[in-house]
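Blackboard transcription, Thursday session:
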Amino acid sequence: MFIRPLSRQRSPMPHQRDDAAGHHTGQLHIAVEKAAAGANGPAKVCARDVKVFYGEKQALFDVGLDIPDRAVTALIGPSGCGKSTFLRCINRMNDTIPTARVEGRIEIDGEDVNDRGVDPVLLRARVGMVFQKPNPFPKTIFENVAYGPRIHGLAANKTELAEIVETALKRAGLWEEVKDRLHQPGTGLSGGQQQRLVIARTIAVSPEVILMDEPCSALDPIATARIEELIDELRSQYCIVIVTHSMAQAARVSQKTAFFHLGKLVEAGPTDEIFTNPRDARTQDYITGRFG
Ligand SMILES: Nc1ncnc2c1ncn2[C@@H]1O[C@H](COP(=O)(O)OP(=O)(O)OP(=O)(O)O)[C@@H](O)[C@H]1O
Ligand SMILES: [Mg+2]
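(Written on the board underneath:)
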């Protein structure tokens, strides 16, 4: 494997709700006993006391959140509340912003992603990212997907590489549409197809976590439905975190929802509870469209 072996030690155990600093509240032990896939499943990513500054300006305040494995976690909240900033902490994309400074801990399977021994390039293969605007490389469809496995040495030969590409395109639900045009440019696909190509490119390097920052906001309703179906299929294998401005989308695709407001995590919990019985008035106002 191209990744430094991880300690398989699991992070602090699941719980019903996180408070703003990530401390467990309520019915913890029951949740632990029943730990299963979904909002209360074992945490893959644990954030504790995460603060992010851009120069002097603080964008995130003491965020604590457990993100379950094999489930979809939705990050919601008004524009500018820090959703993308938080997402970028998980794969250290904030490192690429010169003014950004991150404090606190982000652990994946108990390992601090900011540890000196963690190579950000390898981390970003473990933690793939899909952006709002589909961004295929200016290469062929095949090369878009083959690129990552090739640079990480995941295939022993051309046949194996072709198999990885085919499997990734099949999992991304794109194979049937592109199998006869693999050597045409990826940029020639429709927006929805490009987004599935980007997802195929992401999963081709066998990530553990997939971050999606408003992956459907540039797509029409049909392409959006296709991506949502795909997210639902992928969740059995990955830890997925999605930022969305669509309450309906968060409710459809996620098992856990975290609501951010003005750089703070207001509350997080099982999606159905957040949408039907939020604890905080700000969450209630947001999900009912009173602000944002
Ligand atoms: N590169 C940057 N340099 C300086 N400030 C930034 C930078 N990126 C984000 N910010 C600021 O940090 C805060 C959080 O921004 P962020 O992009 O994380 O919000 P968001 O919740 O993703 O918003 P949106 O829903 O509009 O995408 C905002 O005040 C924003 O202006
Ligand atoms: Mg954003």
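Lecturer's comment: Residues 54, 59, 77, 79-85, 97, 99 surround adenosine-5'-triphosphate (ligand 1) (CB under 6 Å).
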